[in-house]
Task: structure prediction
Amino acid sequence: MVGGRLRLSGKGEGISIIISTRVSGADSSEKVRQALHHLFPDAADEIPMQEPEFGKGTDVSWQFQDPSMTTFLGALHDQRILDTALDAMSKNLNGDSTAFELSRQAAAAGKVAFPIPGDSPLGGVFCVELEGEGLAQWIEAATWHPGRAQVPRTINDERTMDDDGEASTWH
Result:
């Protein structure tokens, strides 16, 4: 526990983590690596750099197995977007696996943004896949905040954001 709250990282917690992205066209491998480093520092350590050249774009897929989620989860807490994260991370929850996307452009600024499903945000996305027994409970614990003592939240409750990313209205 740090500062009164449990700090989860995904490491040693029975959660398998895969992060992937495609670097193509005029994408700068170095800028995408820096964006990844802001949210998943240990995943960005050993990336082969291939910068685009005039008349020859990049075209490479990156995949990272089991990086720590400590920095990413800390950013969710720092940005105070834990309910949004609960909804976005669990939107595609199927049993003990889920997948969600993160904006690379937001990551380049050290921020977390979950693109609206079906949108293709400028700058591309990082795809995050999580799998493990009790994943729903892990996501709820990883996104927990003290406000849930007054307004409880669970995955797929009546306060879950709409499919278009709009917040559900409640009083």
Summary: The two ends are 32 Å apart (CA to CA). The chain has a mean pLDDT of 84. The chain has one domain: 16-149. Residues 29-39 form the longest helix (11 residues).
